[in-house]
């Protein structure tokens, strides 16, 4: 997806992609991520990233010609929920449990990201020539969620809805709740990532299930899928717990 020196076009919603191999590239990504979180992407400069990483600025430019390339590197491995959806969309078993598992995984991933989803989206929209795969991955995730919902309609598990509109609402709920997780409004309850992920999946399934009181039975089925070959997602603490 990218050259050896700069991050090329990469894809999807973000999560921390730096490994612990100690390479200058990964150290730059780690330090840049910390600065993005502390100061915001727009306010962080390449010189600050270089100082934080203990490198000359020219060394940072060797690996990443532009700040946007570091952001792209953060996106490159951010495909967990898409991979879960790609695995579960064609899988056998109740569509309701598969839908719950995908939405829960997506919410966990959004909360685990070093930056707010809306910040990544803002940068991607401002530079579509560099971040086209971001939108391609999002479109594919939307398509897969739509397909699972359609399967639920066909099986009689879900009520009669527009599958595409329902998928849009479900993913938008995840995005909105990750925002509340990161920046809760004064006077409102603070949620952990676990809370947000469960609340979002619960809300969507409760609105779609033909028999809403079947939701308690859907949760353990979805949990079993999440701990299968697709891989479970680790718990993420709320900002207050960090």
UniProtKB/TrEMBL annotation:
Residue numbers spanned by region Disordered: 1-24
DNA-binding region location: 45-64
What region holds the HTH tetR-type domain? 22-82
Molecular function (GO) terms for this protein are: DNA-binding transcription factor activity; transcription cis-regulatory region binding
Q: Which residues form the signal peptide?
A: none
- Which keywords label this protein? DNA-binding, Transcription, Transcription regulation
The reply to whether Transmembrane figures as a keyword in the UniProt entry is no
Does the keyword field hold Signal? no
Q: What is this protein called?
A: TetR/AcrR family transcriptional regulator
Species name: Arthrobacter cheniae
Q: What is the lineage of its organism?
A: Bacteria, Bacillati, Actinomycetota, Actinomycetes, Micrococcales
